[in-house]
Amino acid sequence: MKNDSYREQEQTEAEAEGLAAFPEDEDLVITAVELMKKQRYRYLISFGPYTLSVHEDVMIKYRMIKGAVFRKDALEEIVAADERHRAYVEALRYLERKPRTSKEIAQRLQQKGWEQGSIDHTLERLEREKLVDDGLYARMWAQQRMTSHKKGRLWVKQELRQKGIESGMIAEALGEVSPEEELESALVIGRKKWQQTKGESLDRKRKTGAFLMRRGFGGEQVRQVLKRLIDEEFEEVDEDALEDDFV
User: Fold this and answer.
1) CA-to-CA dists, residue 95 to 89, 98, 102, 106, angstroms
2) CA nearest 217: which of 158, 135, 141?
3) Domain boundaries of the chain, sorted by first residue
4) DSSP-assigned states of every residue in 30-82
5) Distance of alpha carbon 175 from the chain centroid
6) Closest residue by Cα to residue 67 from 91, 114, 33, 101
7) 84-124 residue pLDDT tens
8) Mean pLDDT of successive 10-residue stretches along the chain, which has 247 residues
9) Sign of torsion, CA 69 8 58 102?
10) Which CATH number fits domain 4-94: 1.20.1070.10, 1.10.10.10, 1.10.340.30, 3.20.110.10?
11) Measured distance CA(138)–CA(146) in Å, rounded
């Protein structure tokens, strides 16, 4: 008598051939339904000498119980539904650690070898269930990157493009962070860079400005930050001179 592991190995090999071995235009009666040992929530469905495996949710949906009768064309539909379900489960696992965009999920499923039809179906289902929302993702990303991580608008815009967010959603997300908030972020990191940079004011100005531009801040904001930093430096010099007068 074959053990469960051997039977499941046989089943995996058989699935590679699809339903090719199943007879055409014949009633196929389910003779056994068994929970698979090594594949969680999957069941081995036997039609006499023929077998296939499906996820528990698919089995319940199509009422695959012992004694039920199917034709091959119906089983082809069930196998396709099972593939879509497995792609969906793969996407859920990918979403467990952190939110993802539609493009990121699609790329992940493509890397795992899923067919485009299953990928499209998965994305539609995730969006319908509000598990994927590119607009919300863009707004959260922009707020976090521009305020907490002190990145400029241009930097964040490029990041969201790379993540596959639509232009309209990007514009809306960036619009929710005010120019004042962005300027404050630029001033915070600009001041830190200025203090860390040695040399004359002109050299510090050049290096700090280049640093801010690389962080994605626009030219006008960089000019405002540099003016503020230079003014602050002169104020410190004046205060030191005033203290010396009273020494």
Assistant:
1) 10, 6, 11, 12
2) 158
3) 4-94, 134-175, 179-245
4) --EEEE-SSSTTEEEEEETTEEEEEEHHHHHHTT--TT-EE-HHHHHHHHHHH
5) 22
6) 33
7) 999 999 999 999 999 999 999 999 999 999 999 999 999 99
8) 44 53 91 91 93 94 96 94 95 96 98 96 97 98 96 98 97 96 96 92 94 96 95 66 45
9) negative
10) 1.10.10.10
11) 12
- Please state the length of the chain: 247
pTM for this entry: 0.78
Residue type, 18: G
CA nearest to 152, candidates 59, 77, 218: 218
What's at 194, amino acid-wise? W
